[in-house]
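sry for the spam today, last one i promise. struct tokens for design, 393 residues
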């Protein structure tokens, strides 16, 4: 098991690191070998094999197939366990039920109603940045500020509680000591459980209330608590990472964002290209083959795992080496939000925030630049984590 965990968990984790915006050299080497790479296998007869998929079609095939499971059957600390409400760890039919119950909160109509609130959150954050003045770290003041406030508002978390809740969430990611991460996680989950209990008693118009009002009998408190924590984690964390990386990309490619600012009508799919190029979160649970599956020239045996590199697939989306960042492309194919039944449920919310925040930043600070251009931007562990981004204007 230890050898297989090394191949199934540790090695793929190392491949998620970045060289600035690009895949690390080791992942690039695997990509050059072909769309499917054998990472290694157990030495016992008939031992399981760990695979890496970097081909665009191959990744879509794995993620879109019902012949693979996303449950944590083995490998990692939660082997055999599904956390209640963490929808990415469910297989049908439980996944189908939860997805249907929650999807009503992410409709186009609800997103349109939420748009003015997101726009105001963005404007308030930019006003605060301008009033503080530069140079300023845009990771907390632009990324975390907008992402956590917008996500908390969507979940119905009172503004008075948002700072402390966001601090607990951030501590679960950033604290070095496992005991402190655990304490922060317990505090975070306790608050979410209390919020669910309040929504059961007195539903409002937020996401949790919509689920309670329309499908309350079909979801348990534990599932709803886990779901709230999952949405907050994805919205508060992954959206923040995208916004920080997006601000960094903006100062690295100023001519592209000048075009977005001055001629936005000619670049209608700019966000699709940003999503493809940045691919913020590719830490997918390795998929486990439930039966023998043929992928390209390879047979994936039942019990084998396949780690799908979304970054690898997105950098292969165009023929040849043409994976440079270019917002003038026609609509860009990508799997930045995954594919298949686990395609990101919160994509409408995330895109709503991105479409508001990135153009607003480009317009408000057209001269945005690195405050210390001689210093290398420090990246934390995956997913794509800009530790600090000191900008001036």
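last one done:
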């Amino acid at each position: 098991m230890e050898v297989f965990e090394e191949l199934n968990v540790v090695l793929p984790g190392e491949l998620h690191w970045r060289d600035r915006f690009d895949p690390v050299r080791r992942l690039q080497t695997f990509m050059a070998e072909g769309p499917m790479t054998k990472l290694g296998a157990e030495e016992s007869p008939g031992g399981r094999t760990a695979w890496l998929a970097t081909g665009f079609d191959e990744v879509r095939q794995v993620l879109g197939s019902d012949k693979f499971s996303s449950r944590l059957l083995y490998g990692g600390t939660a082997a055999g366990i599904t956390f209640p409400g963490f929808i990415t760890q469910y297989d049908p039919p439980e996944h189908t039920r939860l997805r249907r119950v929650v999807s009503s909160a992410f409709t186009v109509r609800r997103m349109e109603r939420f748009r003015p609130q997101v726009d105001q959150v963005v404007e308030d954050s930019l006003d605060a940045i301008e009033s503080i003045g530069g140079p300023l770290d845009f990771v907390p003041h632009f990324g975390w500020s907008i992402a956590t406030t917008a996500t908390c508002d969507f979940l119905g978390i009172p503004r008075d509680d948002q700072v402390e809740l966001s601090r607990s969430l951030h501590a679960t990611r950033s604290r070095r000591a496992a005991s402190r991460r655990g304490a922060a996680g317990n505090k975070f989950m306790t608050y979410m459980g209390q919020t669910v209990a309040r929504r059961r008693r007195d539903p409002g118009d937020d996401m949790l209330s919509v689920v309670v009002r329309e499908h309350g009998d079909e979801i348990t408190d534990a599932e709803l608590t886990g779901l709230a924590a999952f949405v907050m984690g994805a919205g508060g964390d992954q959206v923040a990472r995208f916004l920080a990386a997006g601000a960094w990309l903006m100062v690295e490619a100023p001519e592209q964002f000048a075009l977005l600012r001055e001629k936005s009508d000619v670049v209608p799919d700019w966000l699709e290209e940003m999503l493809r190029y940045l691919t913020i979160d590719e830490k997918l649970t390795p998929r486990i083959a439930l039966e023998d599956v043929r992928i390209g020239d390879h047979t994936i045996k039942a019990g084998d795992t396949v780690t799908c590199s979304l970054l690898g697939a997105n950098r292969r989306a165009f023929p040849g080496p043409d994976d440079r960042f270019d917002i003038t492309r026609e609509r860009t194919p990508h799997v930045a939000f995954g594919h298949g039944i686990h395609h990101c449920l919160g994509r409408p919310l995330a895109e709503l925030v991105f479409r508001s925040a990135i153009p607003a930043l480009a317009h408000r600070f057209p001269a945005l630049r690195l405050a210390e251009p001689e210093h290398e931007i420090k990246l934390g562990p995956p997913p794509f984590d800009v530790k600090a981004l000191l900008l001036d204007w």
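The two ends are 53 Å apart (CA to CA). ok im logging off now
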